[in-house]
Amino acid sequence: MLLIECPWCGPRDDQDFTYGGEAHIARPERPEKLSDEQWGDYLFMRSNPKGTHLERWVCNGCRRWFNVCRDTVTDEITAVYRMGEKPPGAIKKAGRKS
Amino acid sequence: MTSQPFRRLEGGLIDRDRPLTFRFDGSTFTGYAGDTLASALLANGVTLVGRSFKYHRRRGIVAAGVEEPNALATLREGNRQEPNLRATQVELFDGLTASSQNRWPSLDFDVGGINNILSRFLPAGFYYKTFMWPAGAWMFYERFIRAAAGLGKAPLLGDPDYYERRHAHCDVLVVGAGPAGLSAALAAGRSGARVILVDDNAALGGSLRGDTATINEVPALAWVDEVGGTLEALENVRILTRATAVGYYDQNLITVCERVADHLARPDPHQPRQRLWWVRAKRVVLATGAIERPLVFANNDLPGVMLASAVRTYQLQYAVKCGRRAVVFTNNDSAYSCVSALMGGGVPVSAVVDTRASGPGDAARKIVDSSGVECLFGHAVVGALGRQRVTSVEVMALADGGSRVTGRSRVIDCDLLCVSGGWNPTVHLFSQSQGKLRYDEGLTSFVPDASSQAESSAGAARGELGLDACLRGGIEAGAEAARLAGFTPTEDVEAARCDHVDEAPVEALWAVPLPARRHGKRFVDLQNDVTAEDVALADREGYQSVEHLKRYTTLGMGTDQGRTSNVNGLAILAGLRDSDIPSVGTTTFRPPFNPVTLGTITAREVGADLAPLRLSPMHDWHAGVGANFVTVGLWLRTQFYARPGEAMMEAINREVLAVRNAVGMVDVSTLGKIEIQGRDAAEFLERVYINRWTNLQVGRCRYGFMLREDGFILDDGTTTRVADNNFYMTTTTAQAGPVMAHLEYYAQTVWPELHVHLTSVTDQWAGMAIAGPRSREVLAAACEGGDVGDESLPFMGYLESRIAGVPVRLFRMTFSGEMAYEVHTPSDYGIRVWEALMAAGKDFAITPYGTEAMSVLRIEKGHVVGAELDGRTIPADFGFERMQKKDRDFIGKRSLERPALAYGPRKRFVGLISEDGRKIPRGAQLVWNPTAPKPVPMLGHVSSTCYSPNLGNYIALALLEDADGYQGKLLYASSPLTDSHVPVRVGHSVFIDPEGERARG
Hints:
Mean pLDDT of chain B: 93
Strand content of chain B: 25-35%
CATH superfamily of chain A: Folate-binding superfamily
CATH superfamily of the largest domain in chain B: FAD/NAD(P)-binding domain
CATH architecture of the largest domain in chain B: 3-Layer(bba) Sandwich
Structural class of chain A: mainly beta
CATH architecture of chain A: 2-Layer Sandwich
Structural class of chain B: alpha+beta
Number of strands of chain B: 50
Order of helices and strands of chain A: EEEHEEE
Oligomer: heterodimer
Strand order of the largest sheet of chain A: 3-4-5-6
Radius of gyration of chain B: 38 Å
Radius of gyration of chain A: 14 Å
CATH topology of chain A: Folate-binding fold
CATH class of the largest domain in chain B: Alpha Beta
Shape of chain B: elongated
Low-confidence stretches of chain A: none
Number of helices of chain A: 1
Strand content of chain A: 35-45%
């Protein structure tokens, strides 16, 4: 049971949010140019790291999406930032995708 | 029987001016205010309180608190009956009724006691062994095992009480109000931090409530009262008593179960029985104390064998003598304070048996020297003797580091054996917080090591057992917690002073060896009836991992969760494996720390309050005419409107025929409605729908499919261009939430550059559909805004108008296949417009219809709903492949080009008509021949089925492989669940008006 800081509503219990998977996965500009394998990679493959994970959440109160940096081992949340923003300073995304 | 023969005449924290009457197993007793059920039973000389789990052995009270493994009772009667409550935690109240468990017909004569005699046929893992051999044995045994196993019985009646949940935030949460917890709360509270202090007892003090120590030169309890008063006076401190912290979750969320009214016969009016607190704390201080370990020797489960600390608590806190003559058996110094409590309270102590050859430390030695009690150092109790309860104990000398006993045995008479095998810090919450434990050789127990969350342990909970260490550690932990939470601890808070007591170290003796050629059960886990021999058997049979041992023998399971047994059990296992305790490890402690009744967890979310109920703006009208309602998700919708004497099917058929032949009206307010506004609204729709939207003109509607990115259909619906940059989307009732979330996700995260804004307006608009050949006439009669003919409101057209003086949005669209209109109006006008349309339709015999008739109409017309759009279908399955844009991307398009969706043989949409007039079963599989040898190839499945009054037969919609090849053929709709196999003829999915002429008028 996480305590998540919505950038608009403030800290709330995780019941007030919905998880939206890994963050910073851009939808390909021209899907038709991709091979089936590349498209499948975009669609299904996620990094699933042990440790720092950048992920999307949506606040069920204000319906705004935002990014959360969470440690998948300790569940510690080290940063919350808005859509379109980069993760703060030192945080590097684990895994292979950009 | 004399009343309370074991009650001392003076002393203790009970109120002798308030006698309380209670019943246990049908007999009436008295106790005093301040008693627990256990102390009151002991005061009355009741030593037999239960039968053991497996062998049905006689069991008495062992402990005085949360660690009690035996004295589980069923409390109260009727609809307030509750099983498996620890008598040691039940506060006595007048009129309390309790009964023992796991015995039949009575506690004293229990038929299940035969298990004790047959115990060599009931070894560890007996239960599992019946699964394996002989074949089928489990089927035979199950009935008996299930009947004989288990302790209390769950109540069968509804719970008359109510429960609450409450959220709280604080800077410092202190768990436990003993010497360490009170000190921590004081240090944190003085700093100004918001402090919550919780303790599971009715009053503060913890172990100090049964202690003779002095703190700051006053009796310990006076110090407790003083600190309690100081904390009460601080506005930033909240004290919760009768409140047990039961769960420690991520990011310092601690659940606390507060027993608000369990000490009363019944809750006061408007008072919850229990309250579950969800406390979110910046810092947590765990001052949960320690639990004494029993010692493992033969017949150590006889009533009269008790923990030394418990005997002391009963003696001092409750003024109860637990026996007439005692022997104390220990491997550490703490039990010597029990000796002084017993002697001071008039219970002679025959001997102190200490496993340590060197004896205790100076303070303890002074106690026995001054009282002249015989001490047997380097000795052990090898067995407790007696049938109903302890009558004597057998003592022998230990040899070879405790690995064997030697010499002549000596029998010492006593009816009370006080045992102490050392102390286990109560690390359950720490362990739940994912903190790492470390085995401390000096303490012979596990202590908290590395924290995983923002917490610290203080006092006995971290292995600092001395009172002075608890007081000092509490202050330090409280001040540090406040500082880390952003507060400045005040300088003047000092640790309270008390005398330091030097103790000789505890000496591990995990199981007293059996003398040569002797038998006897040496219990490790009293609650689950697990003996040292069971641990050895499990080890021999290969269950050597501590987790396997737990599951095979049930050691450490149940409500007890190994509080007294865990360390002894794994130490014995380590001994058998010739390894050390740290490498054997310990099992995981799981929440809850103490059982929590389900009512407390659900709190107010029961019955009608389980989920919100959504009602249409026209609900009162439907209710007023006697509609039958059905739950659809959170909505309550009209299923049908039965007339007096009319059966359900008659009503539905009448409603269907009224729509096909004249006109009907249905409430569609439950449809999801979304306003899509902004400069890029049309472009946004272009990307989320499979069909084209930028060319939709203002005042026109269009039907479309929306896919998920993996290519499967998310939902279908109609969207109307109300203005250039303003679209009004409707979704199916069930998918309203998911569609809104889907659109928001893409608008915010994938295409944030698009200027589009989404608003859910489901609750803002009432909706009603009028359908049937005469629907236009009804609408024309009702509308005040001019013409509604083909010119101004063509098929898939949109018009704003007025009905009954209020604004309406008119859409010409159909779900039934008839000429039909949807009328939307702001919710508050819903009933007004509905009534106006009913009045206008009176001359045309307008018939209100419900969801059943709506469903029949759409099945006859072959329209899809959630049953078909089940997350496994794509547009082409329904013949909508031409709707898909070829020239540009949309969500899911690329996935549709994957081979499996683009070329794979897929099931397609067909209609079925019953061949012999029988009902087509729901969810049936389509097969060639239902009697063919299994497995029968499954060709497809029925998605929707109904009786069609227009065709006079049962029909269905289905998804079928090689749909073209099976056209006109006979198949079977086979439902093994209901054993019905109905022949069906495969045909087109549209049963009525395939050309769609009716809708266009």
